[in-house]
Amino acid sequence: MNDKNTVSKISLSPVSVAFTLGVVAIILVLASLAGQLAPHFTGRSEPVVFLSVDGEQNLPTFFSVLLILAASLLLAVVAVFKKAQRDAYVSYWMLLAIGFLCMAIDEATSLHEKLQGPVGRLLGEDRPAIFHFAWLAPGIAFVLVTGLLFLKFLLHLPGKTRWLFLTAGGVYLGGAIVMELIGSYYAAAYGINSRIFI
């Protein structure tokens, strides 16, 4: 006879989740590479854009959006628990949940790309090559300001959690900002359709 008060639990191993997501990411990168090399070995005239990790609104983008949405959902759950505990930093958890939701929307719709024209005109044609993708300038400014605003919150976290936050943030920003700066430089130097940029 089943007890109506029994609570079901779902247990997930962080290591297993990270390993699974890592495998999926590697498969997507390899598929992207194969899609980029396809014109050299097949009769295709262009790379397979649907698989390109540098593309927008395709399979890798869908994977990224799902990851960011999952992070937003988990942060929202933490915010709910922190609110119930009357935690002093609950507003930070809420802002993080909302921020990640906005990031997911941007990733899905490429809103940041729409800054290219107006910011490019503001910076001028003689701007440094690393800002060929002009949206990077306000993007970096936003990251710096956000980092300062969240510094107090970051310092109050337990040591292990703080370093996990910093590691995750470093990996994400390494791809979202640092690699884009390098790509921006090469796009300015060799053109966006050159083999070096691709």
Structural notes for this entry:
This protein has about 200 residues and is mostly helical. About 70% of the residues lie in helices and about 0% in strands. It has seven helices and no strands. It has helices spanning about 15-40, 60-85, 90-110, 115-125, 135-150, 150-155, 160-190. Helix 2 (about 60-85) runs antiparallel to helix 3. The radius of gyration is 21 Å and the shape is globular. The mean pLDDT is about 90.
- Please estimate the helix content: 55-70%
**Helical run tally:** 7
What class, by secondary structure content? mainly alpha
Report the sheet with the most strands, covering strand number, pairing sense and barrel closure. none
- Number of DSSP E strands: 0
Strand content: under 5%
Salient structural properties:
198 residues; mainly alpha; 7 helices; globular
Question: How are the secondary structure elements laid out?
Answer:
Elements: H1 14-41, H2 59-84, H3 90-109, H4 116-123, H5 136-149, H6 151-156, H7 159-190
Helix pairs in contact: 2-3
